[in-house]
Each structure stands twice: as structure tokens, then as C-alpha cells.
User: Which sequence fits this backbone?
């Protein structure tokens, strides 16, 4: 242990070694080495003296008489064990951070689903409008394109000047039975809307259902220019932008009704999302705040 | 009261205290409460003092000591080893830790009143037996005790056991359930920190004691 003294740097005493030394626990060799060093190093001399003083002061503390006997009585050993006091509320609040985290995750997931559903609604409407333009509809139909109904209604209007909606069957995107009824009955308006399930599968079904139908309603198909005419909803489905609620209204009134009911269900979905989002966000914030407040209060008491 | 255990102990009075203690432990393990209480008689003073120095006030020390003996009785079946005293001190140290948790990290000690028990039951033989010496000593004890409470609990336990109660490093290692190396470093750091805490206090202490000596003697 040859720590050379540097004039501009104070020697750092080895407190552990010095402490052991005053307890007589250093080996003889190390002990004499240390003694020799202490005599030349002021820093170590001071440290050595301080350790000795601390030990002396502690040793000088008087031993105090115990105030009473600690003998155990029979009652003591049979009594219930005294457990360390921990706040009753602490158990509940230990769950607070986990609860906050879960709520936050729920919030994000639901928000994502909400935004995604709104996006697909918008994109489906846009793509169906695009596809109807692609099939070169008449000017009258183009004006109908501005309506929010799927492009099927535009095709309907194409039919209406010629027949009383007979061609509706070919482009009925709902069910095969409704399509076959379409050619025969004028009050198809009544049946089709009611029979139309607002599902995402409908346009696809309509695509498959429409093709065998041309035989059933050949005249209607001819009027509609049907064989060359592919229902826009089928195309829309092919494009991948399936409107989840593709209800093909046959008349404007029905279109409006369908629009509103579609809007209602949309709003219902949106309200549901909104409710969950608000609840999850509120839970996350409250749980997080409660946990932070509890830790802050306990900071002075933790051992 | 059952006289037999007392007679048995008296007969063994000349015997090795370690053997006496071992016999008491064996009997206590057989649910002999009287045998256990004899162990209490032997060790209660040092257990109480350990708790007192660790916690800084007599009331807390009483609670901790009582808990320590209760735990020792209940956990006697876990005692394996040669000496009873370090094992008991470990239980006492744990009881102090529990008590510290119950009362907050800094146990409340009155700065005005002298430490309970220090001015009434001073057993240290003092050549200067006058009241002045007694007062100085109790004041100094209060100052050192206050400084002790400011160092970390593990260092405090190490220096209390080493410098106040005179345990060897190995016994302290058993009591603290750590290595001898750890004990050495805790003792070293505890002493250093204590001295640093006492530094400014010592200067004030010396000033006030100088004034006492120079001042009017009543």
C-alpha cells in the first residue's frame, strides 16, 4: 500500500482498512504498514482519529435499565399475532396502476375500431360512386350518383324510364327470391326493402344471384341492358370496398328511409363507441390519479 | 410457583453458561414457558438496549423488545446453531425494523426532554460523580443518540452491536444475515457518518459546556 502523496491532491483514506485496524482485525503485516502510513499522511491521521472518536462516543453511551420485565405470560403466547399496520386502502390501491393501464388500452383499441369503421363507411360510399361512373351511365343517372345510396339505385333509375322497375330484380343485391319476384310484381318496392338484410354479404350474393336471374327476367334484363350490365354493387364488392350496410332502395322515398335507418345504425355504433371511449378514458385518468396521490401520501412513511 | 426449574439452574450455577443456556433452550422447545422466561431474564437488558439505541425512544423500544421475545418464543423451532444470543439479536433487529415501519422512518424523539432513562438509570461508573458530570453525560448521550438516528438503519445496527454491545464481526454477521465483509464496511461507514453528523453538534456542545463552566454555578 504505497500511495504516494501528491502535493496538489489530498490522499483518500481507506476508511474500511482504518476501521478494521482500530478493531484489531487487520493482519499484523497490513497493520504495521498502515501505522507507518498514518504517521506520514495527514488525511489518514485525521480519518483515523475520527473513527476512534466515533467508537469512543458510542461506547460511552450508558446502558439503560429495562423499564419492566419482558417475561412472557401464558396469555401473551395465546393472543393473536400483532401484524404490522398497513393501510386498508393500500390493498385496493395497489390495483390502481394495472386498472389504469387496462383502461388506457381499452380506450386505444375502441378508438381505433371507431375510426376504422368510420373510414370504411366513407371509402365504401366513395368507391360505389366511382364504379357507377365507370359504367357510363346516362346524365340522369349521374345526377342520381350524388345520392348517398349505393350505385344500385342509379341502375334502378336507369330502368324506371323504360319499365316500372321491372329490371329491379336483376340488380337486386339482396336475395334471389326477391329478384325473381321483381319481374312479376310492381309492388316489388314493398317487398324488396323489407326483404333486404343490411349485411356486408348482400352485394356479393346479389352478384351471384343476379347472374342466374337473367333467365327469369329476360325482358327486364333486356330493358336494363342487363347482360352487359354488372350491378355496381357487385363491382364495388369486387373492388373490395364492401358497404357494410348496402341496402338497395328502389325508390327515392325508400332510399331516404334506408338512408336514415342506415344513419341511425351508424349513429348507434358511434354512440356505443363513444360511450366506451369516454368510460375507459375516465377510468384510466381516475385510477392513475388515485394511485399517484396514494404514493405521494405514503412517501414519508415507507421504511 | 414451580421451584424445580430454579433449583435445577442453581445446581448448574457452576457450570458453563453456554451449557446452561443450551439446556434452557431445549426445555423451552418442549413448550416450557418458564425455561424460556429464564432466557428472557438473561437477555432482556441487552435486547432492550439494542432496541433503545436503534429507535431512539424508550416507549418504542419497549414495544419492539416485547415483540422480539414473543417472536423468539414462537420461532424457537427455527433456531439452529451454537449461540443463542446472535439469533435472538437478529429477531430483535427485525422487530426494530417493523417498529420503524410502524412509526415512520424517523421515530419521534423529543429534543427538549432528555432521553428517557438516561438520566435516571446511569450505571456507568464515573469517577466524577457530581451532578454536573451526570448532566454533561446525559446531554452528550442525547446528542450521540440523535446523531445515531440520522445514519442508515443497517449501519446503525452494525455500530450499535459492535461499539455499544461489543459483539464480534462474526456474531454481527449472524444477526444481520450477511457476510463478515459487509459487516466490516457497514461498521466503517456507520462510524464515519456518525462522526460527520456529530461534527457541527460537537462544536456547539463544546461551546455550551464551556459556558457552563464559566457561568454562574447554582
Assistant:
Amino acid at each position: 500500500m504505497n500511495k504516494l502523496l501528491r502535493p496538489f491532491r489530498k490522499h483518500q483514506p481507506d476508511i474500511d482498512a482504518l476501521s478494521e485496524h482500530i478493531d484489531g482485525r487487520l493482519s499484523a503485516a497490513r497493520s504495521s504498514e498502515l501505522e507507518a502510513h498514518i504517521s506520514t499522511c495527514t488525511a489518514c491521521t485525521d480519518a483515523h482519529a475520527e473513527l476512534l472518536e466515533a467508537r469512543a462516543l458510542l461506547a460511552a453511551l450508558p446502558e439503560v435499565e429495562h423499564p419492566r420485565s419482558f417475561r412472557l405470560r401464558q396469555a401473551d403466547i395465546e393472543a393473536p399475532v400483532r401484524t404490522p399496520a398497513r393501510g386498508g386502502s393500500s390493498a385496493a390501491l395497489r390495483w390502481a396502476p394495472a386498472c389504469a393501464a387496462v383502461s388506457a388500452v381499452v380506450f386505444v383499441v375502441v378508438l381505433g375500431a371507431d375510426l376504422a369503421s368510420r373510414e370504411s363507411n366513407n371509402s365504401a360510399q366513395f368507391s360505389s360512386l366511382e364504379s357507377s361512373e365507370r359504367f357510363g351511365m346516362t346524365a340522369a343517372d349521374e345526377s342520381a350518383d350524388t345520392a348517398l345510396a349505393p350505385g344500385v339505385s342509379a341502375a334502378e333509375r336507369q330502368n324506371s324510364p323504360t319499365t316500372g322497375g321491372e329490371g329491379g330484380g336483376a340488380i337486386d343485391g339482396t336475395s334471389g327470391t326477391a329478384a325473381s319476384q321483381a319481374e312479376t310484381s310492381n309492388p316489388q318496392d314493398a317487398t324488396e326493402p323489407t326483404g333486404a338484410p343490411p349485411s356486408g354479404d348482400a352485394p356479393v350474393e346479389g352478384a351471384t344471384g343476379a347472374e342466374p336471374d337473367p333467365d327469369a327476367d329476360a325482358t327486364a334484363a333486356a330493358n336494363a341492358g342487363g347482360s352487359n350490365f354488372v350491378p355496381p354493387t357487385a363491382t364495388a364488392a369486387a373492388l373490395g370496398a364492401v358497404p357494410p350496410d348496402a341496402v338497395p332502395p328502389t325508390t327515392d322515398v325508400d332510399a331516404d328511409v334506408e338512408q336514415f335507418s342506415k344513419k341511425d345504425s351508424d349513429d348507434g355504433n358511434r354512440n356505443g363507441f363513444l360511450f366506451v371511449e369516454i368510460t375507459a378514458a375516465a377510468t384510466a385518468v381516475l385510477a392513475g390519479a388515485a394511485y399517484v396521490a396514494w404514493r405521494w401520501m405514503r412517501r414519508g412513511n415507507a421504511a | 410457583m414451580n421451584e424445580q426449574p430454579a433449583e435445577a439452574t442453581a445446581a448448574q450455577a457452576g457450570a458453563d453458561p453456554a451449557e446452561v443456556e443450551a439446556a434452557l433452550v431445549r426445555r423451552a422447545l418442549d413448550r416450557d414457558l418458564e425455561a424460556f422466561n429464564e432466557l428472557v431474564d438473561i437477555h432482556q437488558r441487552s435486547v432492550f438496549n439494542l432496541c433503545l439505541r436503534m429507535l431512539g425512544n424508550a416507549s418504542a423500544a419497549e414495544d419492539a423488545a416485547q415483540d422480539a421475545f414473543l417472536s423468539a418464543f414462537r420461532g424457537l423451532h427455527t433456531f439452529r446453531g451454537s449461540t443463542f444470543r446472535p439469533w435472538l439479536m437478529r429477531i430483535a433487529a427485525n422487530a426494530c425494523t417493523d417498529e420503524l415501519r410502524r412509526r415512520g422512518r424517523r421515530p419521534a424523539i423529543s429534543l427538549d426532554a432528555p432521553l428517557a432513562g438516561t438520566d435516571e438509570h446511569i450505571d456507568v461508573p464515573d469517577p466524577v460523580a457530581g451532578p454536573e458530570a451526570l448532566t454533561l453525560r446525559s446531554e452528550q448521550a442525547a446528542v450521540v443518540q440523535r446523531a445515531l438516528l440520522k445514519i442508515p438503519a443497517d449501519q446503525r445496527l452494525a455500530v450499535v452491536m459492535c461499539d455499544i454491545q461489543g459483539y464480534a464481526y462474526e456474531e454481527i454477521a449472524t444477526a444481520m444475515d450477511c457476510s463478515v465483509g459487509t459487516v466490516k464496511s457497514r461498521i466503517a461507514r456507520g462510524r464515519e457518518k456518525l462522526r460527520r453528523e456529530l461534527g457541527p453538534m460537537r462544536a456547539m456542545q463544546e461551546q455550551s459546556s464551556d459556558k457552563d463552566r464559566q457561568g454562574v454555578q447554582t
